[in-house]
Write a structure and sequence with these properties.
Layout lengths: L6 H21 L9 H14 L3 E2 L12 E4 L2 E3 L14 E10 L2 E10 L5 H19 L8 H11 L5 E2 L5 E3 L6 E5 L16 E4 L2 E3 L6 E3 L7 E3 L5 E3 L2 E4 L6 E2 L4
Antiparallel strand pairs: 1-4, 2-4, 3-12, 4-5, 6-10, 7-8, 9-14, 10-13, 11-12, 14-15
Helix pairs in contact: 1-2, 3-4
Bound molecules: 2-amino-4-trifluoromethylsulfanyl-butyric acid and cobalt (II) ion (2 copies).
The site of 2-amino-4-trifluoromethylsulfanyl-butyric acid has 13 residues, from β4.
């Protein structure tokens, strides 16, 4: 069941979304060669707490840290660690979810560390563009599958693959609620969009030809590409309106 948010809830989602975006802006200057992902985690956790909010990932289904940090071939759900020190040429997705006044804001972006290989720079910039194409397809009265269709259409020409195992999600009082948002075209998303729906668009794009992913059997969280290729991701939380979707996590 997809929850339609009331005007009061939308106002709270705007505040939560804005704060999640603020955390990403705050952390950006710290994402450099030599920093550990655990340091990034500590900084984001502190900033979130100081702004009267809660880091949603911490203890979510047992997740052990406050943010997700996914380096290179890690697709999503990377766990911040002292041993994971960013090096020149790396890419890292930092995924922030905060709970403010009971409502969630969820946003991520892939940062580039130092001199990144041109092919990887292209993957990152095209993944961000793919997210915006998906968001641009959202409008009350249309079907949700237009998101996946727009992303697929844009990504097809590059020889990349779109991860299907994980998707976007409705969000509100809950971190994850209906609908499950696919980043490829599928009849499963033949769902009529209505004003007041709020969900994320968060495509994960692999450089390689395989969309297959694997979950670490050591930590049960870290998702990597099966072929070892690098993967990029961007995420916004958006509100369906009668016009252009409103990006609640815009910075
Ligand atoms: N923020 C992720 C998303 O975009 C979910 C992370 S779940 C966690 O849906 F437990 F790993 F934090
Ligand atoms: Co999300
Ligand atoms: Co997220």
């Amino acid at each position: 069941m997809i929850i339609i948010k009331t005007a009061e809830e939308i106002e709270k989602m705007r505040k939560a979304g804005a704060l999640a975006g603020q955390v990403l802006s705050y952390i950006e200057p710290f994402v450099n060669e030599g920093v550990s992902t655990l340091e990034l985690d500590n900084l984001c956790a502190e900033f979130t707490k100081n702004h009267g909010a809660i880091s949603a990932p911490l203890n979510y289904h047992g997740f052990p840290k406050s943010i997700c940090t996914s380096i290179n071939n890690v697709v999503c759900h990377g766990i911040p660690a002292a041993k994971d020190i960013l090096k020149n040429g790396d890419i890292v997705n930092v995924d922030i979810t905060v709970i403010l006044d009971g409502y969630h804001g969820d946003t991520s972006r892939t940062f580039m560390v130092g001199d990144v290989d041109e092919k990887i720079v292209n993957l990152v910039t095209r993944t961000e563009k793919a997210m915006y194409r998906g968001i641009a397809a959202v409008k009350a009265g249309k079907y949700l599958y237009e998101v996946g269709r727009a992303i697929e259409k844009y990504i097809a020409k590059f020889g990349y693959s779109i991860v299907q195992t994980y998707g976007g999600h409705g969000i509100g009082k809950n971190f994850h609620e209906d609908p499950h948002v696919l980043h490829h075209f599928s009849q499963h998303n033949k769902i009529r969009l209505k004003e007041g729906m709020i969900f994320t668009v968060e495509p994960m794009i692999n450089m390689g030809q395989s969309n297959q992913v694997e979950t670490s059997t050591t930590d049960d969280w870290t998702v990597t590409t099966a072929d070892g290729s690098v993967s990029a991701q961007f995420e916004h939380t958006i509100l369906v309106t009668s016009g252009e979707a409103e990006i609640l996590t815009a910075r």
